[in-house]
Write a structure and sequence with these properties.
Blueprint: H1 8-16, H2 20-26, H3 39-59, H4 90-97, E1 104-109, E2 115-118, H5 119-123, E3 128-135, E4 141-150, H6 151-158, E5 166-175, E6 183-190, H7 191-194, E7 200-205, E8 208-209, E9 219-221, E10 234-240, H8 253-256
Parallel strand pairs: 1-10
Antiparallel strand pairs: 1-2, 3-4, 4-7, 5-6, 5-10, 7-8, 7-9
Helix pairs in contact: 1-3
């Protein structure tokens, strides 16, 4: 009997090829119209929940994303999503002008001791550096070296309450066009991904400081997930027991508009 090998990338094809991929390819057909009770969307959300449960069961909570050698970094990290919140966020523009000297990363919500960290304080903590591949939902990949503080360390210092189930990442960014009102950008993960040893609050990229286009001053790297699950320009990390009070209640800006919440690879 041959041995069945399931890696994360193949699991996507097995568990989400017919449903989850439809979300990514055709979300604009029904999600940007505000149709929150659409029966097709309800079906896709149930499929996404099954994919999430299957990946957790088969991949394991602490499975590591592949790491690469320095020689495999062939180019600078290609930016994804928004690349400059300065155009509509005055506070961010002021922080960037002073090298983010006044920046504070806040840990709030369902924690015993809320925390605040300056960029300098984060840089002086024990850090982790990892060379990983960023996989974008648009179909491209890029290998880069990321440096930051393990997020689990920050959460431990804040003392997460037992009621917390998820982590919401609030960002200095807004999304929208002339056809719609700007929406505050946010993303989220469960506590398993937040405490994963490769999940870091990154402030360094390829041996230098994190550029604005890639999310300065702090970007959360959740290495076992697709690129849209790596929030940039993060200013607050909030522990919560649910998503109903954020955006349209689906756990992230892109998820509010049809993407899979889990986004695992």
């Amino acid at each position: 009997m041959s041995k069945l090998i399931l890696n994360r990338r193949r699991l996507i094809g097995l568990g989400a090829a017919s449903a989850g991929s439809l979300v990514l390819a055709g979300c604009d057909q029904f999600d940007f119209l505000g149709q929150r009770n659409d029966p097709v969307r309800d079906f896709l959300e149930r499929a996404n929940s099954l994919t999430y449960a299957a990946q957790r069961a088969l991949v394991g909570e602490q499975a590591m994303a592949k790491e690469f050698s320095e020689s495999e970094i062939r180019q600078g990290q290609r930016p994804n999503g928004s690349t400059d919140p300065r155009s509509n966020i005055a506070e961010y523009r002021d922080l960037e002008a002073t090298g983010f000297a006044a920046y504070k990363l806040k840990i709030t919500g369902l924690v015993e001791t809320p925390q605040e960290y300056s960029l300098a304080e984060l840089q002086n903590m024990p850090t982790r550096t990892q060379i990983t591949r960023h996989d974008c939902v648009e179909g491209w990949s890029c290998i880069a070296k990321w440096t930051g503080v393990p997020l689990g360390r920050l959460l431990d210092e804040a003392k997460v309450k037992p009621a917390a189930k998820f982590v919401v990442y609030h960002c200095y960014d807004q999304m929208g066009s002339g056809l719609s009102a700007p929406e505050a950008y946010y993303e989220s993960s469960d506590l398993i991904d937040a405490y994963h040893p490769q999940t870091i609050a990154a402030f360094g990229l390829n041996g230098g400081m994190l550029p604005v286009a890639n999310g300065a001053p702090v970007r959360i790297r959740i290495e076992r997930a697709l690129g849209y699950k790596q929030p940039k320009y993060v200013h607050t990390i909030e522990l919560t027991d649910g998503f109903s009070q954020y955006g349209l209640g689906q756990g992230g800006y892109w998820e509010d508009h049809g993407y899979d919440w889990y986004g695992g690879i």
